[in-house]
Structure prediction request, 241 residues.
Amino acid sequence: MKTEKVVAGDRALFLNFANRISPQINRKVHLLASFIEKEKGEGILEMVPTYRSLCIYYDPLRLTLKDLKTALDQIEHELERAEKTPPPARVLEIPVVYGGEYGPDLGFVASSSGLSQEEVIQIHSGSDYLIYMCGFSPGFSYLGGLDERIATPRLKTPRVRVPAGSVGIAEGQTGIYPLESAGGWRLIGRTPLKLFDPYKDPPIPFVPGDYFRFIPISEEEYQKILEKVRRGDYKILIHDG
Prediction:
C-alpha cells in the first residue's frame, strides 16, 4: 500500500491514500494510525485521521522529515500483511426517539423523499453506519452508509441551537450532535446518550472505524435511559461487527 506524502509546513506530513471516500480507504487510514500509535518513537506529537488521509504532526527538533518518511515506509510494509486480517469492528447501539420535538425535521425528510415518517425511521435505523472521522465539535461523528432514499439537503439557514444528542441528516450523511451547538442538519431524532464527557476517560466512547446502530425507542424509554445516563448507570451496548 503506497501513499502520497505531502509536506505541510515544517512540522506536519500529510499521507493521502486516494481521491475518493470509501470504507476500504478509510480502514487503511485508521489501521495506519493505529500502527503508528503503537510503534511511534520520540518526535511524533499528534495524528489527525480524515475520510481518506492522515496528518502527522511531529517535532522537527527530535525527528527529521527524512527519518519520519523512512519509518513510515517500514510501517506501511508491515501494514500490507495486517490488511488481510483486519481486527473486528465494534458496533455501538444508539437508542433514538424519532420525530416530534426530538426530531422536528422528520416530516420534511419524509415528504421530500416521498415516504412516510415510519418508513424513514425504518430505513434510517435499518443499517449500521461506519464512523469515518470526528470533527466540527468534540465527538461529532461523520457517518457513512446513509440510504440515498432519505438523503436530504441541509437547512438553508442553520439553527442557532441544536440540543445535544440530536440525530441529523445532511445530504448523504447522518450524524449526532454530541453537544448543544448551532447546526444546519435536518433533525430527525435524539439520543439520550452522552457522547462526549470531558470528565471521563476516554471522553468519547467510540473511535473512527467503529459503527453506530440506531435503535428506535419511545419517549418513555428515552426519559428512562436519560435518567440512567445522568446517574452514570447506563452502559452502551457494544457488539462485534
